[in-house]
Amino acid sequence: MSDDTSLTLFQQQEANRRRTVLLVIGFVAFFAWLGFGGDYIYYLSTRDAPSTVYHHVFPWFGIALTVIALLTAWYAYATGPEKVLWSTGARAVVDPTDPQEKQLVNVVEEMAIAAGVPRPRIWIVDDPDPNAFATGTDPLHAHIAVTRGLLDLCNRDELQAVVGHELGHVKNLDVRLMTMLAALVGAVALMHDGATRVLRGGTNLGGGSGGGSRGGGKKGGAGPLLAILLVVWILSWILAPIITQILALAVSRKREYLADAMSAQFTRNPLALAGALQKIEGAVAPTTAIKRGAAHLCITDPLGRRLTAREGLFADALATHPPMAKRIAILRGMGYAQLKKEGGSVA
Amino acid sequence: MGPIIMLVVLVVVAAWLVGAYNGLISLKNQTLNAFKQIDVQLKRRHDLIPNLVNAVKGAMDFERSTLEAVIQARNQAVKVNATGPEGIKQISQAENALSSALQRLMVVVEQYPQLKATGNIGQLQEELTSTENKVAFARQLYNDTATQYNTRQQQFPTNLVAGLAKAQPADLWELEEQADKAVPQVDLSMKPKV
Fold first, then answer.
1. Is residue A146 part of a domain?
2. CA angle at residue B61 from B55 to B64, to 5 degrees?
3. Does B144 touch chain A (CB under 8 A)?
4. Whole-number mean pLDDT of chain A?
């Protein structure tokens, strides 16, 4: 490790801290817009109504939604890792008797020493498809989970390389950003479903009473502004889950290359990770235990989407993971460079 | 204008000084900590070896010399380790000797299928592999951190503060060529390339 790589590690950690804060601010701001925007629209539409009818002057929706968003963000930070692990049905490995699990614990301990981080908690997902992911908020509160399929498929070196990849995510604080994102994407999806139900009820109601208010609205000058606001506002509601999904995709791809490189740095054996990725790719079956929400946390796309296999603008924009062939090629390049200068190199 | 510019320059220089000094101190402590880690792992290994030898002693009566070499190397390593971090060269020599003795034992174990067949030996082998890896990775981390520390304190302009931070080049944990060559070229331990 040269001075430069340590600087990039530090920068990477800083960038991840910053991005997590930005993510939370964006999340809260988006909900504030939904709330206060709704208030404003409601205010405009009731402004010219006769004094006997309800006038919406105090921004109740805005305050309520902002508070909800803040609480959600706090809750996501506090319980995100547990929620992610729970959603995959992982079980903790505490005192293993099974030789395979014992080996996993040993390998994780070894990699934690190589990475210079405390030993994370270890989990196993009982799924026959090979995959692995890391979650947590910082290296002191980190979790590493692998599937039973990975333990069965990989030899010791390959398992070590995969664990090294995951510890790379832990060390450069990728886990904090990705776990937050997973928790918030889940929250948005949940709220969206709930809100859609309420809104649908609301528009039905509005349709019923709309006939009465339309006559009054024509006199006021707020018509076009109201219409534009309403369209943008409704679009925001509809697009919320899609926006968060795209965010989740965009944030995770470049990180995989970096974590691959960190694994190679920890194990000094890039060919082992190349071998592991090759085996994992060979097992095409999707990891059924891991749902869409946690997909971007995994070492390889658990949904088995074919996009991951291709390159290009479309795939680059929509896949959670970079093309496997490219990752393997980069690792092989590292491996051959290492073999070439073997002999004179010290640790 | 003059005094203000002077002040700004002073503040910038002071800020850089503080940053460079703290950076060096942080690296120094990281290096010390990484060295402690090696110590921890070596102690673990020293504690494990007697158990390991006892476990295979009965089944390996015919390989007494290999076992004795391991015990001897272990005792030597424990003795040298007691001298403290000053004798890093000696410690690494003793530990490398122990590593090669252990690797020879592993090769011998591999050669007797009836030994391997018992699950006990399989578990011990896994423990031994893991212990060797832990020692190797702890050294790797120490060497990486120490190299970073050494580079930083020699580079301009940080070298100007090196004296102030009492920074001195840290010794790297070297792999003894001799010990390395004595090991047969059979990679059964799946050790990382150190």
1. no
2. 95
3. yes
4. 78
